[in-house]
Amino acid sequence: MPQRAEAAAVKRLRSPFFVGLLIILFLVEFMKGSLLVAVLPVYMKNSLGLSAHTIGIAFSLQYIGDNLFRSPFGWIGERLGYRKTMAGALLMTVIAVCIIAFSSGAFWLAVACFILGLGTSPLWPTAMTGTTEISGPNNSNGQAMGTLEMASLAGTGSGPIVMNLLMDRTEKNYHTAFLILIGVGIILVLVALTLPSKVRIPLQTAASSAAGAGKGFVALMGHKLLHLWESVKKTLHEVRHTLKVSWMVYPALFLQSFVIGLLSPVITLYVQNELHISPNMYSLLLVAGGGITVLALIPCGKLIDKFGTRPFLNAGFLLAACSLSIFSMVHSLALVFIFVCIVGVSYAMILPGWNTFVSHLVPEGERGAVWGFFLTLQGSGMVVGPIVSGQLWDRLGHSSPFMASAIVMALLFVIHFILSRRMKTAG
């Protein structure tokens, strides 16, 4: 029986639907990593002469667009199907890159960043909903979640590396980079068109009935809007009555990404200003930490399916808390590499474990909407984290963001420990 279950799980991971999700996830993160890390900051600052404040506003709009519309797109995705939702949304990413490539005004660049976030907002709700649906009768999707995270991390990491190499070879020809990214966007739309057009809760179109009754255009649109409003109210009612989770889940979702937001704006500054590591060595450091994480994701996902999420999340949160607290105290290059690798291993346990843990809380009736809500709440930590991190850096010292992130990880350990014990008792 275990062998049959494992074979069935492998078969699901090789399905055209899941492979399509992996390709889309990789290419979207490749595009975002290329733009947000390698291309846009330098392009907007050095080539267009825009202020850092303007760049910050543009990037904030991207995060807002990505997070604010996850829940609505999750709701829409369950009604229109994966194909229409993802193809339409990813078409907006192509439009966004075109605006960036062929305009130089701060306003239009900010609008393009918002459209980019809007176009990528259905990605994770669709991926999580689809993965949950193919997880099988026992909801064993730790391996699938680990595969998703591996595709995401691979895209995020390879995007800046490829674009930096390209910029060096083309002597910072940004238009070449933009044309390549437009091509990536077109490929994304084509792959999205291969996704199934399954509609979990179909919207009835009133066109035929309205035409038969001789209703005019205004009456037809009014009927559709009324039907849509009734559907939204029904969805909210079902979510409110089926989503029965502890209040502790909500701060945990926020803290999960808040800790990443604490580190993302200061890690480069810390490595260069405090540890005095060269850019090439810093790249090697990122490759080491990211590589360890990617390599450990699949085995961790398989072990999570076999033994459950509890031991891996407890160990991951504790390991991350300890390593992050010590990281800001070491200056030896060898020790820095060791602790970066430890953080990578801890995240390989946390990422698939946490997503699998949350997937058990999602009711079957409104998976898309609930996943969208959860991911919106989780993504909001990425918006707040950098602001808090900058204040800590300026007011309390350069090591304070790392200590704060360690405290957050310890707090997540406590929250998960309590939640898992309650779930075990209830079970």
Write the layout of secondary structure elements.
Elements: H1 2-13, H2 16-47, H3 52-68, H4 70-80, H5 82-102, H6 106-120, H7 123-133, H8 142-169, H9 174-192, H10 207-212, H11 217-242, H12 249-263, H13 267-273, H14 279-307, H15 310-327, H16 333-359, H17 367-396, H18 400-426
Helix pairs in contact: 2-7, 2-8, 2-9, 3-6, 3-17, 4-5, 4-7, 4-17, 5-6, 5-9, 7-17, 8-14, 8-16, 12-17, 12-18, 14-16, 15-16, 15-18
Rg calculated over all Cα atoms: 22 Å
Q: What is the share of helical residues?
A: over 70%
Topology as a string of helices (H) and strands (E): HHHHHHHHHHHHHHHHHH
| Shape annotation | globular
Query: How many individual β-strands?
Result: 0
Task: Label the structural class.
Answer: mainly alpha
End-to-end distance: 23 Å
